[in-house]
């Protein structure tokens, strides 16, 4: 596991590049907990917007079970929502290794344990969006 201070340092270095300064930046899946959020702040990293896509745990577990990975391109597809049209791509798709319901449940438990504190830190810039609707509406 990478120490939080190292993550924050790496993120700060990347965000100081010209493209991020001119065009902005997006972090996905980070921070995962209060300590990481505070670490970002201590490195002077303050997002203008924090977007949270939410859905019930049962919906997330069900959606996760449909994920498929193209080992050649690392593209992620879904059996219901985003199936590739190319038969060659369809044939090479595999189920990602970390998709067991137990693994997903563990991640959701961790999320529910940590995110109220993260939400509190970013409450002034937080936008919550219901992800349990058609993607065009999200």
UniProtKB/TrEMBL annotation:
Pfam families, A to Z: ADK (PF00406)
Which keywords does this Swiss-Prot/TrEMBL entry list? Answer: Kinase, Nucleotide-binding, Transferase
The answer to keyword Kinase applying to this record is yes
Asked whether the UniProt record includes Transferase among its keywords, one would answer yes
**GO terms of molecular function:** AMP kinase activity; ATP binding
Q: Which residues cross the membrane?
A: none
Read off the InterPro entries from this record: Adenylat/UMP-CMP_kin, ADK_active_lid_dom_sf, P-loop_NTPase
Annotated family: Belongs to the adenylate kinase family.
Q: What is this protein called?
A: KAD8 kinase
Name the gene that codes for it.
Ak8_1
């Amino acid at each position: 596991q990478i120490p939080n201070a190292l993550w924050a340092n790496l993120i700060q270095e990347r965000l100081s590049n010209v493209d991020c300064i001119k065009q902005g930046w997006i972090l996905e899946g980070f921070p995962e907990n209060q300590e990481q959020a505070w670490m970002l702040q201590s490195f002077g990293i303050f997002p203008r917007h924090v977007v949270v896509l939410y859905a019930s745990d049962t919906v997330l577990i069900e959606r996760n079970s449909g994920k498929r990975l193209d080992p050649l391109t690392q593209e992620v597809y879904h059996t219901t929502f985003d199936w590739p049209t190319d038969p060659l791509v369809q044939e090479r798709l595999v189920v990602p290794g970390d998709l067991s319901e137990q693994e997903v449940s563990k991640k959701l438990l961790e999320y529910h344990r940590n995110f109220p504190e993260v939400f509190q830190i970013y409450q002034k810039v937080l936008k919550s969006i219901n992800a349990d609707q058609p993607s065009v509406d999200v």
